C-alpha cells in the first residue's frame, strides 16, 4: 500500500479535499461521453443532441452541408461536414480520429429523397463506410437507429405478430420497400461485424412530434403503434451509455413503463426483439 507524505505546507485536511476533488472529477469524466452523430440534422438527432448536451455529453453532428449548422448550434451540437455519399471510409476515419468519439450514433438516411440510388448510397453504403471507418480508427461502440419491422420479407413474420401486425407490415413494405431493403442489409452487415463492433440496434415504431411521456414498451411488441421522437432520442442515450446493451436489437414504442426501467429490464433479460440471419 502506498504511504502519502503530508507536508507541513500541505495540511492533511487540504490533502483530503484534493483527493476527494480528483475523485469527483474522475467520476464526472468517466460519465461524460463524446458522440459522433451521423445524420446529425434529423429531428431525432437534434433532440438527441439537446438531451445529451444537457446531460454533460459532447455531440459532434456529422452532416452533408454546413448550412445546417445554425439548427445544430441551437441545441449545443458541434457541426462537422462529411458527405456519406462522397467520402471514402479512410476520409471518414480521419474525421473520427479528429473527433475521437467514445460512441458513434448512425441516424443518417435519405428520407426517401433521390430515389433508389440515393437510398442505397446513404442508408446502406453510407453505413458500411462508417463500419469500415470505425475499424480503421479503432472505435468499437455504435448505436444504429433502424426501424421496427425491418425484416426479411421472404421469411414468415415473427411469431409475436398478430393479424393486424402482419397486414400493416405488408402495407408498409409495399409502400417503402426500397428503404426497408437497404436498411435491412445494412443492419445485417452490422451484425456480421460483431467481432469488431459493439453495436446496439434501436428500432422505433412510427414517429410523432409529440412531447415524450417518459414511458415506452420494448421487446417483442406490436408494430401497430407510434412513438415520440423525443422518447426515441432519450432511449438512444440510455442504450449508448450502457455497454451491457451491446449486440442487442430493441424494438421500442410508446408504452406504460418508464424509459430507464424498461431499458434496464430489457438489457438484463438480454433477449433481442428480432434476429438477423447472417
UniProtKB/TrEMBL annotation:
- Coiled coil (residue ranges): none
What Pfam families does the annotation carry? Answer: NAD_binding_10
CDD domains referenced in this protein's UniProt entry, alphabetically: SDR_a5
**Residue intervals passing through the bilayer:** none
Lineage, top-rank taxon, reads Eukaryota
Q: Which residues form the NAD(P)-binding domain?
A: 39-239
Q: Which Gene3D superfamilies match?
A: NAD(P)-binding Rossmann-like Domain
Annotated PANTHER family: FLAVIN REDUCTASE-RELATED (PTHR15020), UPF0659 PROTEIN YMR090W (PTHR15020:SF50)
Protein name as catalogued: NADP binding superfamily, implicated in heme catabolism
Annotated source species: Schizosaccharomyces osmophilus
Amino acid at each position: 500500500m502506498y504511504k502519502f507524505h503530508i507536508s507541513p505546507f500541505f495540511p492533511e485536511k487540504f490533502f483530503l479535499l484534493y483527493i476527494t476533488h480528483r475523485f469527483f472529477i474522475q467520476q464526472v469524466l468517466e460519465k461524460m461521453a463524446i458522440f459522433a452523430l451521423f445524420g446529425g440534422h434529423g429531428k431525432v438527432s437534434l433532440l438527441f443532441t439537446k438531451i445529451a448536451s444537457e446531460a454533460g455529453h459532447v455531440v459532434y453532428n456529422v452532416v452533408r452541408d454546413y448550412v445546417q449548422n445554425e439548427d445544430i448550434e441551437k441545441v449545443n451540437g458541434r457541426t462537422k461536414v462529411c458527405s456519406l455519399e462522397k467520402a471514402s471510409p479512410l476520409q471518414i476515419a480521419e474525421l473520427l480520429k479528429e473527433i475521437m468519439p467514445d460512441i458513434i450514433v448512425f441516424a443518417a438516411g435519405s428520407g426517401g429523397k433521390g430515389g433508389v440510388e440515393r437510398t442505397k448510397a446513404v442508408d446502406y453504403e453510407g453505413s458500411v463506410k462508417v463500419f469500415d471507418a470505425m475499424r480503421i480508427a479503432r472505435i468499437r461502440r455504435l448505436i444504429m437507429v433502424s426501424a421496427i419491422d425491418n425484416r426479411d420479407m421472404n421469411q414468415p413474420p415473427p411469431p409475436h405478430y398478430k393479424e393486424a401486425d402482419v397486414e400493416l407490415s405488408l402495407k408498409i413494405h409495399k409502400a417503402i420497400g426500397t428503404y426497408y431493403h437497404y436498411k435491412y442489409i445494412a443492419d445485417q452487415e452490422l451484425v456480421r461485424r460483431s467481432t469488431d463492433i459493439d453495436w446496439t440496434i434501436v428500432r422505433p415504431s412510427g414517429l410523432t412530434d409529440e412531447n415524450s411521456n417518459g414511458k415506452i414498451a420494448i421487446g417483442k411488441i406490436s408494430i401497430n403503434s407510434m412513438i415520440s421522437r423525443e422518447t426515441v432520442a432519450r432511449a438512444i442515450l440510455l442504450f449508448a451509455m450502457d455497454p451491457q446493451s451491446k449486440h442487442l436489437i430493441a424494438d421500442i414504442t410508446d408504452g406504460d413503463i418508464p424509459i430507464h426501467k424498461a431499458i434496464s429490464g430489457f438489457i438484463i433479460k438480454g433477449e433481442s426483439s428480432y434476429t438477423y440471419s447472417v
